[in-house]
Queue: 2 jobs
Job 1
Amino acid sequence: MPHAYIVETARTAGGRRGGALRDWHPADLGAEVIDALIARSGIDPAAVDDVIVGCVTQGGEQAFAFGRNCVLASTLPQSVPAVTIDRQCGSSQQAVQFAAQAVMSGTQDVVIAMGVESMTRVPMFSNVALHAKAGLGEGPFSDRIAARYGTRDFSQFRGAEMIARKHGFDRAQLDAFALESHRRAAAATASGAFDDEIVSLAVDGGRHTRDEGIRPDATADSIGAVRLLEEDGMISAANASQICDGAAGVMVVSGAALKRLGLRPRARIVNLTVTAGDPVIMLEEPLPATDRALARAGMSIDDIDLFEVNEAFASVPLAWLKHTRADPARLNVNGGAIALGHPLGASGARLMTTLVHALHARGKRYGLQTMCEGGGIANVTIIEAL
């Protein structure tokens, strides 16, 4: 079977809710990433066969064929098609997997896989809220779903609490993980580890080049002082991912395109896995998904040099570490969504961008990325740095 290669990656620096990216239309954020990928690769924009855009809250400025709008706002010719997909938090990781499948099938040679989410301008759940306000139907969960699972309240926050209790974690452990995320992200920023990843954006008369959510001065006391989301729970805003605006993307190409266009491969995609499980606990699926991906690739956890496990809530990567017995020093080495932010549909491509750069910076070979996703789904992608 033909291989799929990642040749370029790019991301915006994360913006806090109401922060540096508040005045950026999300289609323009996507366009900036597209243009950066084209510029970095040096290819003719007309060589792009397709653009696959992950976005979770598809409403308002992120509605009406949003992926196509990102293309129309970019320097790509209007002849380049696009599609918008929603696999919840894994949307742009799935975009990468769809792009790889297109290349590996031989149907396309150059595909941009990316994600965009402006959580300031299109708030989380706002598309559901508009539906409810209009008094149309029962919302996304039908009577059949409610009867099957005994609820219509499929809550990621509750799922995170359930995971913490199931795997025996307490708040102090969750907070300690959150503090380490900020420490690693601050160190990575100070060392320039993110410099080659980030697309500089014009904001307020200056340039936005640093992730706004990182708190270099965070302490165990300051994180521990944040109010819990539930009175008897363990999850707080400090040990959960931050609301964030941002965009990220990768260019995926075939071996034929490498030769024809004179491109340099940065990584080869080794394995593509997606699984689904319990939609109530919801966020635990990366555990069995990782097992399946490693088995399909004929690898063990010790074969993987670096891991990117999305920090939707601290309980998720902690449970993943406990289950896989992976080396914590190899996990989210430059911090994660607790510090860097979680721009929903853009996070999968952001993690992949960071993973590719981190492997090269450390001279390592294999990387594994996984995301917990609404509805109890998880994607796993294994890559080999080249």
Job 2
Amino acid sequence: MTVATSERYAQMLDSARQGGYAFPAINVTSTQTLNAALQGFAEAESDGIIQVSVGSASYLSGKAVNDRVVGSIAFARFAREVIGRYPNITVALHTDHCAVQYLDGWVRPLLDYEAEQVSHGEEPLFQSHMWDGSTISLDRNLEIAKELLEKSVRARTILEIEIGAVGGEEDGQSAAINDSLYSTVEDGRRVVRELGLGENGRYMAAFTFGNVHGAYKPGFVKLRPGLLKEIQEGTAASFPQANGDKPFLLVFHGGSGSRPEEIAEAVSYGVVKMNIDTDTQYAFTRAVADHMFKNYNEVLKVDGEVGEKKLYDPRSWGRESEDAMAERVIEACTQLGSAGKALR
């Protein structure tokens, strides 16, 4: 397997929920960071998820083009070619954090594009898309989610929704770090009343339990993973048709600075996808900085000298950065329990 089919992706998520592990969902911004993520998944013998944000999608199209739909399509086609060289892992492609102001210029056109692909017997370019309604009322959030879920069914993709607000800043979206960062059991019940439990289309849910985007020291983020258990069990108790005591496929956003035991607890309650962005960005860029500092005289033409081409060649520091980011991906796979569990 290479890029997940719709059925394979569903199998991946169900296996993670049943097996008590989660997949790292690695945000990428370039072909280099894509290759680094794939290298990490392959070395960890883990399936995984690759995702692009609204800013990354535009960036991938190039500064002069600046079109997030073009960037997304071009990226997905490139990714399929490269992922095909990793036959022992399955990777799903995902678009991340589409806020309301970007729907008409990004995810809705992509879903229409994919529905057209499906109508011709093809697999959709992406396997899932995230609708981020965290900045609007829950009523409006779920109203839009319902519309997008119908489109997702036609496109044979899975929808990800966010219920509540994640603190900090992510690609231009920001929220205060306060007591509003916690979803409730009633929020879970409302989601089921509006979207169902899979019979109207499959979706993942990112309930908030104190999550914060960005880089923070351990202990700064006040997570309450037990809230996820309350939401799962409270929802299951209210809907007899629920799938056991974990009716939701849960997603963990804003995990940088979280303690390992908090991550493990969240995964035990049904988290099947954890977004990894800040830490892999740092791993990649730190390696670039190391290379430049260690080879300062060679990468710059100091005092009229000519430098050393093999050291300022982007491929030299690029390979070092890919290795460093791949190591962080392996760490995430190990921590989330997906290492060694690639579906065969």
